[in-house]
Design a protein that fits this description.
This protein is α/β, with parallel strands linked by helices. It has 16 helices and eleven strands. Strand 8 and strand 9 form a beta hairpin.
Length: 363
Amino acid sequence: MNTDDEDLAQQFASDNYAGICPDAWTAMQTANRGHASAYGDDLWTARAANAFRELFETSCELFFVFNGTAANSLALAALCQSYHSVICCDSSHVETDECGAPEFFSNGSKLLVAQGVDGKLTPDSIHELATKRQDIHYPKPRVVTITEPTETGRVYTVDEVQAISAACKAHGLSLHMDGARFANACASLGCSPADLSWKSGVDVLCFGGTKNGMAVGEAVIFFDPQLAVDFDYRCKQAGQLASKMRFLAAPWVGMLESGSWLSNAVHANRCAAYFADRVAAIPNVTVVSPVDANTVFLSADDDILERLRTRGWKFYTFIGGAARFMFAWDSDLKRVDALLADLEECASAEAAHTLPGAADLKH
């Protein structure tokens, strides 16, 4: 087993790289004492569900699954028949990163893709796709799904979600929210989970725990109990019914009751803002878009990015060619400063290399 310090050093390629936050870890340790009933018939699962109901200020149906792909795909499948379609943004996770799982678990519901700005759908784009064709030969629009925050790190405001909900209602569509980083959106907007979800017209929310400090686990929240009918069977059939469900539920208890679900997100967002503010002073590197949550996209020459990689830094460039840096609940500002220092040196080296006459100076 390789345990070199370099392999353990904090990276910013993804908030999935982070470990388990203390409150989630402690709750799992406590749940590990003794025996408990299986398949969700335990006090931890009930306690987590009630904590969510308190957080969202409403009665709702809760289901705990292993990951975001399952959460989104099963939720959409519950809202659709196979002949229906789902309206989504062209850069949404369900379209680009879930390997056809939404279509698979819905037995073929088609994704109708709208071109977005900063990863956001608009009421106009929903209207366009909902009315594009209404004949029997075309998959009938049934659901709209939005990602909060978007894949490009932008946050839908409460007003924007409400406007999308109004467009959905006008066309008889359900509204699903992929909230893999929902906590970061709440922290960014300073609003309550209720205001950003059911009070704004969201029917089903997939609340992400993995990126918020848990080892594994997402919560699927149905604000309309009728939509949740038989969802437990879907979870079982899809291999998402954990036999030792308390270990999916207990971390939520630790994070919701302590408030760390929010403080973790606040910290991650602040680290992203800190990084972006200081990048602004580095030549030849540009922050591509406003930093709403815990994501920063940078534009820089390939040579700069390659130099940064050779220094051991990991990051992705899969959206529009920009380099993505993610900040997590445990991001260390000293490590962020180390990244900034290396980025500045790499950018300066590129600037020196491209100065007039630089080639002559090498000889």
